[in-house]
Specification:
This protein folds into three domains: 183 residues, 3-Layer(aba) Sandwich (Rossmann fold); 113 residues, Serine Threonine Protein Phosphatase 5, Tetratricopeptide repeat, CATH 1.25.40; 149 residues, DNA Cyclobutane Dipyrimidine Photolyase, subunit A, domain 3, CATH 1.10.579.10. It is globular and about 75 Å long. It contains 25 helices and five strands. With 562 residues, the protein is mainly alpha-helical. The structure holds flavin-adenine dinucleotide. Flavin-adenine dinucleotide binds next to helix 14, helix 16, helix 19 and helix 21. GO terms for molecular function: deoxyribodipyrimidine photo-lyase activity; DNA binding; FAD binding. Keywords: FAD, Flavoprotein. InterPro entries: Crypto/Photolyase_FAD-like_sf, Crypto/Photolyase_N_sf, Cryptochr/Photolyase_FAD-bd, Cryptochrome/DNA_photolyase_1, DNA_photolyase_N, Rossmann-like_a/b/a_fold. Belongs to the DNA photolyase class-1 family.
Length: 562
Amino acid sequence: MGASDSPAMKKAKADAKFLPNKIATAENAAKADAAPPLFQLLDAMHAGVKNPAKGDCVVYWMRLEDMRIKDNRALAQASAQAQKDGIPLVVLFVLSPQDYIAHDRSARRIDFTLRNLRCIKDDLDKLDIPLYTATHTPRKQIPSFVHDLLLQWNASHVFGNIEYEVDELRRDLALCQIAKKHGKIACTFVHDKCIVPPGDVRTKDGRGYTVYSPFLRAWAPILDKTSSRHLDEAPLPAANDHSVRKHATFGKLFNAQVPSEVEGFSLDPEERERISTFWHAGEAAAHEMLYRFLNTAARPSQFGAVDPLTKGAKEVDPTKQSRLGKYKDARDLMDADTTSRISPYLAAGVISARACVREALKASGKKKLDVSRDTGVGRWIQELAWRDFYTHIVALFPRVSMGAALPGEAWKDGRTGVPIVDAAMRQARTMGWMHNRARMIAAMYLVKDLMIDWRLGEKYFMETLIDGDLASNNGGWQWSASTGVDPAPYFRIFNPYTQSQKTDPEGEYIRHFVPELAKVRGKDIHQPPLHLADKLGYPEPLVNHNEARQRAIHRYKNIGTK
Ligand SMILES: Cc1cc2nc3c(=O)[nH]c(=O)nc-3n(C[C@H](O)[C@H](O)[C@H](O)COP(=O)(O)OP(=O)(O)OC[C@H]3O[C@@H](n4cnc5c(N)ncnc54)[C@H](O)[C@@H]3O)c2cc1C
């Protein structure tokens, strides 16, 4: 169960007959890989309705991963179509609680979605564009529900940005099939999430890459071509004619409110307040987070759970002194304000990945793409390339995400007895976010020291983090577990104590998140002696790291034996 499962959600999960079978059979996994649903969707779209009759509106179907107005490709195309046909643009958002349960969405993420939807509704309102938020329960019926709504509105076209997860691709495929059968509505799903779309970065024999370094070597030149349009900003939607507010059907949509919560995913008031202080909603906040990362110096108070947008950020030279400038050397430090914290905004699409690259290059005065390991901007763009990489994997090799989960409570509670792991896990509970190194250390510890199935961790992170993103999360877990694509070699096992000394040298990160250890001084903070830990009410380590390491190596070498 997630960090904040309500009794209603626990019951829904227990009763859930709609949950997908999370461990696919070998046969089904192979089938999905042989004919990835992404290509099935693109084929169905091309075989769908062409040149529909004009209709009364064009619909943009906004989803969980594209919650913005700026630089949004499907929205821009929907707007262009509406302008061309001289009919209004309507924006639809379907809340689907069953999908959120089935996909382990965190209550934080759903609350963030609702907060962002409210901002979007206000912004669209200024353009006389209605945002209609519907809640639909049977997840499997969403395609017919959306199609019925489109018929009711006499829509000619629906546009959406592609979501690359298997269930979402199959949902859109079903909509294309229903629309084709009725013959009235043209469906267009476009690439928007990645900087370079999945399918465009291919090995010489036409396959997708499964190893990051060669992927990056092929990815960067695609962007660097002078003819590349990958980083172009999609235009803002044009305003509807003001008269739409009086339209018998569409006028009413302006009054439809974004719900204040989704049942089973509500946060208690204290948590809602806390999480919205760390993660302000809206595009302006996302751009401000980015601006500060690129142009201001790290602030000592910023590594922990504090409001990131308080006044007083000091502007500095972006190439040297800003967080971006220092990213090359400082990015792995967990005890400081070193990274951008843009992941919740990227995961929800409150800002586009293209905008991140464009702004980073501009701030560092670069005319050409930089993916070098020797500059802050190059290293940062490499991280965005990891995001593309993992999304390409999910799209091209769907089997990677067709796994399942098992338990491990001490780890979830941040009570393993290893301070850096516990600080990381408690950061996740408090903030709904973790530093990348924290994720790697906690993930590696679960998988290699505790020898617990990585799918438990994958599920728990999705249920807890505000930036939960299937591709990055699944990729990170399989890297840590030395499974799947581009894994860490199985014998690379982080020593959590040396990691702790390197990434949190003074122990400030640990003290912040593990208050029982706040008074521990010096090197003991990384591995408190047992008598001291006992006195402070801090647990003994669950395992001895050196023994656990040997056990993991033995198991990985001798798969299938005890
Ligand atoms: C086990 C594990 C699980 C993870 N789960 C998620 C997740 O659910 N959602 C998520 O967005 N990231 C996930 N990551 C990747 C990474 O930890 C976060 O993206 C990063 O910590 C976010 O902080 P930031 O925005 O300050 O990153 P920065 O260092 O500023 O990087 C900028 C952006 O690049 C992307 N990025 C950075 N590192 C990675 C990476 N290793 N893989 C993919 N993209 C990356 C993110 O979009 C990030 O916001 C996971 C990593 C691991 C090891």
